[in-house]
Design a protein that fits this description.
Structural class: alpha+beta
Distance between the termini: 90 Å
Helix content: 40-55%
Mean pLDDT: 87
Radius of gyration: 38 Å
Order of helices and strands: HEHHEEHHEHHEEHHEHHEEHHHEHHEEH
Low-confidence stretches: 324-331
Number of helices: 17
Length: 331
């Protein structure tokens, strides 16, 4: 077929489609089906004949006799299907979608609170929570459950427990602050209320207890010199540390992480600690040990710098640069 024939074929096709679109004899789409037979309903739910009519006579959806035969209203059937969970279509379509939007089953509540179903039943009975019965099963309206939940603190969802745990880890209590500073609890209250220092602190309420964010406490430590972390809280090696700046750095790091493994010790330094002592960036320290300027060891996925060799190398480097102090480097 040449190009002219192809062009004429396309033109004829366009003309035919235009005529058909304006023709009064154009076939109209079939109206949406409103009724189905009892057999169709039963097949949809995978029910045998006896079970089909038993369900029909429960009047859970609209049915009507049409032309001498019982028919089921499709819209009414779908509404019923979306508000029950006992029956499921053979197509796999999930039942009870509307029901699940506004209510919880006892199993749902047990899973939310991570408790046994028997405990959930006792809880509903003890707290006198409003319930509705659907297909012989108790369900609790969601607004009823959440109103109860927000008014108590004993039970928590997994999501809330995680959020509160993270919030706890990011904060300290007032007794914790008193211990860290080596002062009385009364002094802590005075600090929080004072014009001079109160501006540094941010507090949150967790389980009816006021707690101070670690970030704001760290800001308080950085912005003033009158109060500092008390050496009384040091673990043995930190108490033995002679480098005051390094000891203070480790105290602050310990406050932030709560993990001693994030600090070095008398024999080994972290890259951050070595950077503090050398007054350079951490990336410079990494560059130096990658060039094997001083020895390092690996502890799991952590890098630790051999302190004695690093201090000797740093002192030698300072001598070459004319910055010899005659003592071990102290920041």
């Amino acid at each position: 077929m040449n190009k002219k024939e192809e062009w004429m074929k396309e033109e004829y096709q366009d003309m035919i489609e235009a005529i058909e679109s304006h023709s009064p004899y154009k076939r109209k789409p079939s109206p949406q089906k409103k009724w189905m037979s009892v057999a169709e309903m039963g097949e949809l739910l995978g029910l045998k004949k006896t079970d089909r009519y038993w369900l029909l006579h429960k009047n859970v959806f609209e049915s009507r006799e049409i032309a001498g035969k019982l028919r089921v209203n499709i819209a009414s059937f779908e509404k019923w299907y979306a508000n029950q969970v006992k029956y499921q279509k053979v197509t796999g379509e999930e039942p009870g979608l509307e029901l699940k939007e506004w209510s919880f089953s006892v199993r749902d509540i047990a899973q939310l609170l991570e408790i046994e179903e028997s405990v959930a039943y006792d809880l509903i009975k003890r707290e006198k929570l409003e319930t509705v019965t659907i297909d012989y099963w108790k369900r609790i309206p969601k607004d009823v459950f959440w109103n109860w939940y927000n008014g108590q603190t004993k039970y928590q969802t997994a999501e809330d427990r995680k959020a509160k745990r993270e919030l706890y880890e990011a904060t300290i209590s007032m007794p914790d602050m008193a211990r860290l500073l080596g002062v009385s609890r009364g002094t802590v209250y005075t600090l929080l209320k004072s014009r001079k220092y109160g501006k540094y602190f941010s507090t949150v309420i967790i389980a009816d207890q006021k707690r101070i964010t670690k970030e704001s406490f760290q800001k308080f430590l950085d912005e003033q010199d009158e109060y500092q972390l008390s050496p009384c809280n040091d673990y043995k090696e930190l108490a033995m540390e002679e480098n005051i700046a390094l000891a203070n750095y480790r105290r602050k790091k310990l406050l932030q992480t709560g993990d001693r493994r994030c600090n070095g010790n008398l024999s080994y330094l972290t890259p951050e600690e070595a950077a503090l002592m050398a007054k350079v960036s951490r990336s410079m320290i990494v560059n130096w040990y990658q060039r094997e300027e001083f020895p390092i060891i690996h502890i799991g996925n952590r890098v630790r710098i051999c302190r004695k060799e690093f201090e000797a190398w740093l002192e030698e480097r300072r001598k070459k640069n004319g910055v010899h102090t005659g003592t071990k480097p102290q920041v």
